[in-house]
Design brief:
By secondary structure, this protein is α/β, with parallel strands linked by helices. It is about 30% helix and about 20% strand. About 50% of the residues are buried.
């Protein structure tokens, strides 16, 4: 089943107050129950500068239907008009408001997951840090898909990508995004901007981290997974098949039998029950 074969339209559209203005949100109902135990708030990509919430309708619909989970996709503040930390505050505002609006979300208010792709993956990782630091809301898990985690862009895969013709374009786009989102260089090492730079990672929820083979962001995803495990956090790590990383549309295309869908479905099933006390990292090979 391809993503073109499903009804990509959201089931409901809301407007909630963000930290400094109204935010638009889309709900994709995938859970069969009238009130599901789990809700996933999933942040869109776009490098902190573009709202991709409409272009990712198909992706979110496939994820919701295939994983049988209700997904809430919010907009958030975009740079350069509203640079860091505006998007971080919007993300936390959305997570905080989910409990208040749980009936409209067809959610019992029990288990809350956070996830995102690229810039959205950054916000998901940062949200886990912020929720821990502000003592709520409690998260059941975090899902980071090709996340942007290091504004210093020092990982080997990023440096290598900048010198290669097949990846230079996306590496340059990521650099522009970080520069726009973080106009003050001192902010680039802040853990709420670069989670990979965080010195304290204890107390975070379990993580599913996915990276694409050959992608400029792959090494920072691996590095963050390893740091989480060293902090005692349970991590599932999945390597996705190579893709045309310069093709922005391909970086968010998905089908129901995609390894990313399979991994997310398994992760949600595992963490809808009380988490194990053990902390491990497992590398799950993808299937093309």
């Amino acid at each position: 089943m391809s993503h073109q074969a499903v009804n990509a339209a959201p089931d409901a559209i809301f407007e909630w107050p963000g930290s400094s203005g109204p935010l638009h949100l889309r709900l994709y109902r995938g859970a069969p129950e009238k009130a599901s135990d789990a809700l996933m708030v999933f942040f869109h990509p776009g490098g902190f500068v573009v709202s991709d919430i409409e272009s990712t309708d198909s992706c979110f619909r496939v994820l919701a239907d295939s994983c049988k989970v209700n997904m809430l996709a919010p907009c958030y503040a975009l740079a350069s008009d509203r640079p860091f930390p505006a998007a971080v505050e919007d993300a936390h505002a959305v997570l905080t408001l989910t409990h208040q609006h749980r009936r409209k979300l067809f959610w019992k208010g029990t288990q809350l997951f956070v996830g995102g792709v690229e810039a959205g993956g950054n916000l998901a990782a940062v949200s886990a840090l912020v929720c821990r630091d502000r003592q709520g809301p409690k998260l059941a898990g975090q899902v980071l898909v090709m996340p942007m985690l290091d504004a210093s862009m020092c990982c080997d895969s990023m440096r290598h990508a900048a010198d290669q013709p097949d990846t230079a374009e996306v590496a340059q786009a990521l650099e522009r995004s970080y520069r726009t989102y973080l106009p003050h260089p001192s902010d680039r090492l802040h853990p709420y901007a670069s989670p990979l730079q965080a010195s304290r990672l204890t107390g975070l929820p379990p993580a599913l981290i996915m990276h694409t083979e050959g992608d400029p962001l792959s090494d920072e995803a691996r590095a963050y997974a390893n740091k989480l495990v060293q902090a005692g956090i349970s991590v599932d790590q999945v390597t996705l098949p190579p893709a045309d990383v310069n093709n922005v549309s391909e970086r968010c295309e998905i089908t129901a039998d995609d390894p990313c869908v399979t991994a997310l479905s398994a992760f949600l099933a595992a963490h809808r029950s009380p988490p194990s006390s053990s902390s491990t990292i497992s590398e799950k090979p993808s299937q093309a």
